[in-house]
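Hi there,

I know you've been waiting on this one. I reran it after we fixed the sequence typo, so this is the corrected version. Both the input and the resulting structure follow.
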Amino acid sequence: STQENPTLLDRILWTDESTFEVNDRVNRHNCVYWSDTNPHLIIEQELNVPRLIIWGGIWSNGVVGPYFFEDNVASQNYVRMLKDTIVPHLQAHPAFQTMIWQQGGAPPHYGQVVRYLLDDTFLD
C-alpha cells in the first residue's frame, strides 16, 4: 500500500501503445451514435488503412519514448524494442534499480521471450 510505501507510485513505469491510422479520417471505433431518426446508422470504414503503432511510458521521472512500430506488435519486435532501446535508456537512470514495470495485457507482452527479458531486467 502507499501508506506502507509512500514512494510506490513514483516507482511505477506505466506503459501502453495506441494505433493511429495514417489517413484523413477519424477512427470511429470508439464512437457511438444515437439517432431518433435513423437508429440503423451505418458508417463505412476503409479496410487495410496504413497505420502506425506508438508505444510510450510515463512515470514520476518523466516520459519514456515514444517508440514507433510500423508493423503489428508481436513478441519478437516488442522484445527487440525493449532490449535495443527502452531498457538501455532506463538502465542509465539512477532510479532504475527500484523501478516497477507495468504493461497491459496484450498477448505480445506475455510471450515467453518477453517474460524472460523482463524477469531478468526488473526485480519484482
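Quick highlight: The longest strand covers residues 12-21.

Best,
R. S.
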